[in-house]
Amino acid sequence: GVNGTMISNCYQSHGYQSIMIRDVNMKCCVDWLMMLSKIKFTDVVIYYSGHGTTIEQDQQRKVQKRFKKKVGIDTLKFVDDEEIDSAYVFYDYEEHRSELLCDDIVTQLMLSFVTSPFVISDCCHSGTIIDNNEEFFAHHHKLQYMSACMDDQYALQNHTNGLFTNYICDYFET
Prior knowledge:
Strands 1-5-6 form a 3-stranded parallel beta sheet, with helices on one face. A 3-stranded antiparallel beta sheet has the order 2-3-4. By secondary structure, the protein is α/β, with parallel strands linked by helices. It contains 6 helices and 6 strands. The longest helix has 15 residues, at 57-71.
């Protein structure tokens, strides 16, 4: 809602095109990323505002299995390189449950269609939601990433939106 609108308006006020997707579940988010993968971009800013969490390694495999079943993508490679990993949290209103989109999935989908992605995450536990895995970034060294906090921290909010988002928009106004 409010965070996405603020960021979208900031970018548009500086001449950039902006597409904003609101209240999406995990499948919708992945569908958008897959659709974008058919178009090769040079520079793209992907902004996520919502909930973030950490998941332990044994839970990661369950999340990955559920992802493959729900979304139907078997070509993604999952890396069990961390005891605790970060994930975006989506809520599926049809199934009335939360869904996790782990960093391996986000990273691979983005790198499939963007040469120089710039990712902004305004959510808790977002420090390495885009992994620093050498295998993924061997050919994508132009990735840039900003997060609201470290993996073991919570993102701060004011009354209406994320404090991190406020600072980004303040930067645009200067």
